[in-house]
Amino acid sequence: MHPWNQTVKAALEPLANAENASFMKAYMRDQYTFYGIQSTPRRAALKTLFTKSQLPSLDELSGVIDELWLQPEREFQMVAVDLLIKLKTQLPLAMLKDLEHWLTTKSWWDSVDMLATHILASYFVRFPEETAQVIGNWRQSENIWLRRSTLLYQLKFKQNTDRALLFELIRENQSDKEFFIQKAIGWALREYSKTDAESVVRFIETERIEGIAKREGLKWLKSKQLIRTL
């Protein structure tokens, strides 16, 4: 194991909490084992490791992340995500290929959504042409997590959102009844409604968006009493 990961493990193991671990495992539908460490104490325990002088080099980074991804406790994957976010403006273009592996391995919303909204989003800003090609492939994938990523990567773009592309991606996924796809559609619409409420309402009406996607898409507007019926 890479020395950085060994230090991570040594810092996390003493914080293990069996009761929390059982609750976390149940919450994640028994897919992963846990130490039982919540995000705030986990990050506090590793704060020194995330200082500039302690971070692994970019040349080592893919291997470090891969090792963390292989560990059974879910906290290690969350550390990996935090590490990628810390270095997101420095990640080389070649690592975009690795991102697909991390999105499609041990996939669940906790890792996928952070990778999409931080890492894929950053790649798109820094390498728009190359990333657009990758997104073009992922949008046609049978893998729901890759398609969820294409729906969510623009979540924080606000006025820089490519509205036409977002709506096109939603249309492509609209008939998919998978919960995590419908939830992503609603989340994307809800966030974009904060920038362009009129377009979102019109889109929901025109495309007859229903169910959880509609409820989520209109949630912010209704909470602000900007819309009452639809």
TrEMBL record:
Stored Pfam families: DNA_alkylation
InterPro entries reported for this sequence: ARM-type_fold, DNA_alkylation
PANTHER family linked to this entry: ARMADILLO-TYPE FOLD, DNA ALKYLATION REPAIR PROTEIN
Protein name: DNA alkylation repair protein
Organism per entry: Vibrio mediterranei
